[in-house]
Write a structure and sequence with these properties.
The chain is of the alpha+beta class and about 190 residues long. Helix content is about 35%, strand content about 10%. It folds into 2 domains: about 80 residues, Roll (Ubiquitin-like (UB roll)); about 90 residues, [2Fe-2S]-binding domain (DNA polymerase, domain 1). It binds FE2/S2 (inorganic) cluster (2 copies).
């Protein structure tokens, strides 16, 4: 069955079973391997993408349900790691193994699109379904706050973007692929 939808701003037309999970269509049919498989049961968040702006578990989303909708994957968040969430994640060196991180970032980006300055409780609530076996939760919470700060400053042209207290300038230093787990931030690893 032919199903049409938008992925990262481009129209896609796939001929697959309507019940096929969106995750498999993204990864296997369309080649967007930045979105990860973890549990397949909406329990871990590794497969999180945006559907019409809402953070959604693609492993339990039949592809037929996204017909005519806009899907954004980690590859579509920005072309050059310039999204505030990606910048904050790199600056604070959030990833450890990196496997869960594209899902974490997509959940964080969806939260910040709705709530520009979320509280700790709001962050915990939005991120609660994203499991990290490496236990990076403290850095994730910090990075969400940092992303909110970066976004607010970018909205005011000319405002200096000061690094965190550790003086890190890694976001500016990193070349594509320079840090392996960071490859997960842009869908660079399979
Ligand atoms: S793979 Fe979808 S929530 Fe775990
Ligand atoms: S960084 Fe390893 S699972 Fe989250």
């Amino acid at each position: 069955m032919a199903i049409s939808f938008i992925v990262n701003g481009k129209p896609q037309n796939v001929d697959v079973s309507p019940g096929m999970p969106l995750l498999w269509v993204l990864r296997d049919t369309l080649g967007f391997t930045g979105t990860k498989f973890g549990c397949g049961m909406a329990l871990c968040g590794a497969c999180t993408v945006h559907i019409n702006g809402e953070a959604t578990r693609s492993c339990v989303t039949p592809v037929s349900s996204v017909a005519g909708k806009k899907v954004t994957t980690i590859e579509g968040l920005s072309a050059d790691r310039s999204h505030p969430v990606q910048q904050a994640w790199i600056e604070l060196e959030v990833p450890q193994c990196g496997y869960c991180q594209s899902g974490q970032i997509m959940s964080a980006a969806a939260l910040l699109a709705k709530k520009a300055q979320p509280s700790d409780a709001e962050i915990d609530d939005a991120m609660t379904g994203n499991i990290c076996r490496c236990g990076t939760y403290q850095r994730i919470r910090k990075a969400v706050h940092r992303a909110a700060q970066l976004h607010a400053r970018s909205a005011k042209p000319g405002a200096p973007v000061k690094a965190e207290a550790n003086g890190s300038t890694r976001a500016a230093e990193l070349a594509p692929g320079a840090l392996s787990p960071a490859g997960m931030l842009v869908g660079g690893a399979k």
